[in-house]
Design brief:
This protein is of the alpha+beta class and about 220 residues long. The chain has five helices and eleven strands.
C-alpha cells in the first residue's frame, strides 16, 4: 500500500491510521451516486444496478467516517466532502479533524495538506489501482471492470441494496478482506471496508442537492 509522507511525525492514533488512508480514500470516494431512477419490477440484478448508477455523471456528498483500529482504544473520526465527475475524476476533501485533499484523475493521484502536495501515477500502486478501477467500473456501469478485480454478491432491492466485493488479486486480498457498498436507487449511502487485520472503516454519505455545494 502506498504511503505518502505529507506531514511531520504524527501521534499514535494518526500513525496507526495513516498507512491505510490513501488506499481507503480512493475506495471511499466512490460513494457519490446522486440521482434517483424508477423502481425496477422483479429481483434486482447487477446489470440493472450498474445501468442505474451509470446515469449519474457528477455529484457531491458530505461524508462522516469512523475507523476502528485494532491497537487503539478509540474510534477515529473524520468528515468532509466527496465529489465525482465522469468518467474518471474523484476528489475526497477532509475538513475535520484536519484539512486534507486526495484527488484521482485518470492515472494521476494527488494528495495535499496545507501547502504541501505529492503526485504519483496510479499504476505505480497496483492495489490502489485495482480498487479505483473497480470504483470506476461501478460508477460507469462497467460490470467487466468489477469482474476483473472482485467477486461480487448483490442483495436487496433497488430501494435498499448492498453490493459486496471481495478482492481477487492476492496482493489486494492480503490487505482488504471485503468491501460492502449500500445504497438506495442511484444514491450510495454507506461504504464499509474490512481490512484483513480486523480494522474497520465505515463511511456514511449524505448526498447534496445540486445547489447545496455552493452554500
Amino acid at each position: 500500500m502506498t504511503r505518502l509522507p505529507l506531514r511531520p511525525p504524527a501521534s499514535l492514533p494518526e500513525r496507526a491510521a495513516a498507512p491505510r488512508r490513501g488506499l481507503l480514500a480512493l475506495l471511499l470516494a466512490a460513494a457519490l451516486g446522486m440521482a434517483a431512477s424508477p423502481a425496477q419490477a422483479g429481483p434486482l440484478t447487477l446489470e440493472h444496478l450498474m445501468a442505474t448508477l451509470a446515469q449519474v455523471k457528477s455529484g457531491e456528498a458530505r461524508f462522516t467516517e469512523k475507523r476502528q483500529v485494532g491497537e487503539l482504544q478509540q474510534t477515529l473520526e473524520s468528515s468532509g466532502r466527496l465529489s465525482f465527475n465522469a468518467p474518471d475524476t474523484f476528489v475526497r476533501e477532509t475538513l475535520k479533524p484536519r484539512r486534507e485533499r486526495l484527488a484521482v484523475s485518470g492515472n494521476t493521484v494527488t494528495m495535499s495538506q496545507g501547502q504541501r502536495s505529492r503526485t504519483m501515477a496510479l499504476d505505480s500502486a497496483p492495489e490502489a489501482e485495482a480498487i479505483v478501477e473497480a470504483v470506476r467500473g461501478t460508477l460507469t456501469g462497467n460490470a467487466a471492470a468489477l469482474e476483473r478485480h472482485f467477486t461480487q454478491q448483490l442483495s436487496g432491492t433497488l430501494e435498499r441494496w448492498t453490493l459486496e466485493l471481495v478482492p481477487r488479486e492476492p496482493r489486494l486480498r492480503g490487505q482488504v478482506a471485503r468491501v460492502a457498498v449500500t445504497g438506495r436507487q442511484a444514491e450510495l449511502r454507506e461504504v464499509r471496508i474490512l481490512l484483513t487485520d480486523g480494522d474497520l472503516s465505515v463511511m456514511q454519505i449524505e448526498p447534496l442537492a445540486p445547489d447545496a455545494g455552493t452554500k
